[in-house]
Specification:
There is one protein chain. This protein has two domains: about 100 residues, no CATH class; about 90 residues, no CATH class. It is built from ten helices and five strands; from the N terminus they run αβαββαααββααααα. The chain starts with a helix and ends in an 8-residue tail after the last helix.
Length: about 200
């Protein structure tokens, strides 16, 4: 297995890399995606270019993520999310087995959906956030999710009371700070008051 040169330059980066062809990226980027395990807590996914760029900007921050515990995980998630917003981290990031979500990417899509009043404008990334991080089942796929919540009013109602009978914002675990920041912004966009239920 071939290790990229940047893995040899930093002793903190004890890693395992798996590469596999992926047709989705083949025409746009270098033709393969990779999984880069920084340690047992932090994993990056993406094209070789995305992973290398992300490591370049994360290298000073990686020490803060090594040996992360749940008390400090929330801080690390916000730090990584801020680097994503600055477009410095472009790879997908898992921290302790859970995605760190790109706030800008999701909010841009939500604003477009609300502005045009079209749920059909939902991106796959936003769908994955909703089905994995907001108290919703997948409804088979994105089209199924949209058919269950076909209007912006139904979408708003989902944030007030998700499929588990709870307000989305109030049902997030304490370590999920990246999700909380996104959900607060979505509630603001949808005009949901910070008071419980409305």
């Amino acid at each position: 297995m071939l290790l990229p040169s940047f893995a040899n330059q930093n002793p903190l980066l004890l890693c395992v890399i798996f590469t596999s062809p992926n047709k989705r990226f083949r025409s746009k980027l270098e033709g393969e995606t990779m999984r880069f395990e920084v340690n047992c807590h932090l994993v990056l996914f993406g094209t070789k270019k995305d992973v290398q760029q992300s490591l370049q900007y994360l290298k000073d921050e990686i020490a803060a993520c090594l040996g992360i515990d749940h008390a400090r995980e929330g801080e690390a998630r916000i730090m990584i999310q801020n680097l994503m917003e600055q477009k410095l981290v472009t790879a997908d990031v898992l921290l302790n087995g859970n995605s760190v979500y790109n706030k800008t990417k999701i909010l841009r899509n939500i604003r477009m959906m609300v502005r045009h009043e079209k749920m059909s404008l939902m991106t796959n990334y936003t769908y994955e956030f909703l089905s994995n991080a907001c108290g919703s089942i997948a409804h088979w796929n994105k089209a199924g999710w949209i058919s269950f919540y076909p209007t912006i009013a139904a979408f708003r109602d989902f944030f007030i009371k998700n499929e588990y009978g709870k307000r989305v914002l109030e049902s997030r675990p304490a370590w999920a700070t990246d999700r909380v920041e996104i959900i607060k912004e979505i509630e603001s966009i949808l005009g949901i008051s910070s008071k419980k239920g409305m």
